[in-house]
Amino acid sequence: MHRDVVVVGGGIAGLTAAHELALAGRDVLLLEAAPRIGGKLRSHEVAGVVVDVGAEAMLNRRPEGVDLARAVGLEVVHPAIVSSRLWTRGALRPLPRSLMGVPLDLEQLAASGILDAAALARVREEPSLPPSEIGDDISVGDLVDARLGPAVTDLLVEPLLGGVYAGRARRISARAGVPQLVAMAERGSLLEQGAALAPAGATYAAPVFAGLTGGMGTLPEVLAAAVRAAGGEIRTDATVRRLERDGAGFRLVVGPTTAPEPITAGAVVLATPPAPTARLLGEVAPLAGAALGAVETASMAIVTLAFAIDDVPDLAATESSGFLVPPVDGRRIKASTFSFAKWAWVREAGVSSGVLHLRTSLGRHGDEVLLQAPDERLVELSRADLREAVGLRSRPVDTHVQRWGGGLPQYAVGHLDLVARVRAAVAEVPGLAVCGAAYDGVGIPAVISSARTAVARVSG
Questions:
Q1: What's the confidence (pLDDT) of residue 198?
Q2: 2 CB contacts (<8 Å, ≥6 apart)?
Q3: Domain 297-408 has CATH 3.40.50.1970
Q4: Which CATH architecture has domain 98-196?
Q5: pTM for the full model?
Q6: What is the pLDDT of residue 202?
Q7: Which residues of the chain fall short of a pLDDT of 50?
């Protein structure tokens, strides 16, 4: 079999690439090793309601995600409630305005009670510090430690980065993860610039986050349908075991070792996680493969719980969208999202079934032992923390545990240089491109942008 372009990987990156190529009239085949497409965008029925059990939102202030969703006919919605809390020092505390946890409002920070007097005094000294000399790169945590003190890293930055990367602040690259923070630190005081960036009382026309009616898990299926309607083909349970050059094109070996299927292609887009991409690049771009092989990943789990509305009247009346948990507090969960409060469509669907849905997340980089526990234990740990945090003692009527093994690439210090080396090596192979969450950002808009860059590469 010969195809014009083969896309390997059926997550949002691969689906976006296949969609762009099919619309351009290219003969495209997408191969996904798993039984289903979608990657970390997935839905599942819990207590009779289909809800997200993977990514539940995307940045709204970057256009790629919302524009793509609207282009394929999906309804973009925004959170009904965006008042998140921080569970620390024995209480649920208001989360001050911040840039990835770096406080932008000193008065809000002081009023929150998140920091003790000594840590708050350390923060107040920050405007007297000279501009930071970052050099090639630095971890987010080391940068924040130096300017605002380790308590800010531990109690504010870690919970935010734990949600985005499932990572550790003192290991994540500041230049790759929070480039705006680096630029601010190199200019001078974070607090002074933060006050100008987010003045007290300011309101913003554009919400930070967006979702989809029916959940982000609807996007992969609709994209896949659009790919097929444009003449593309999508195959699941199709593991690509080998990639090699074949004249001016490529040869892929697909399927089980007992029945390998050769497919030739004029161009190939690899939209797979770092480890399988590194393996497939081994013969065609070994330097790129070696670099990608060094990218570590974090695993996590999402526990979704549904409660009978009549059993949780206090929770049903909440005006919070959930809470984050600093790892130094020693809890098992790292966050909880009150889905019924955050998303109007979740609440409406749940009310019709007499239930409310919420979810917890567990697992940061290095937390593999915790995630080895069986599903029942993760539910038990989640319920125990929810009982202590918000007094939730009722038994859920239904639960679901979704595990994301190696789901989030870690942007270690020097990540931008690593990505530049990968792209330089791949660029030496005509007709080859890579895309996904390992390169330019783990959020949905960044991944979509990465896929479009890859399409441009194989279309040039």
A1: 64
A2: 263, 264, 265
A3: no
A4: Orthogonal Bundle (1.10)
A5: 0.95
A6: 55
A7: none
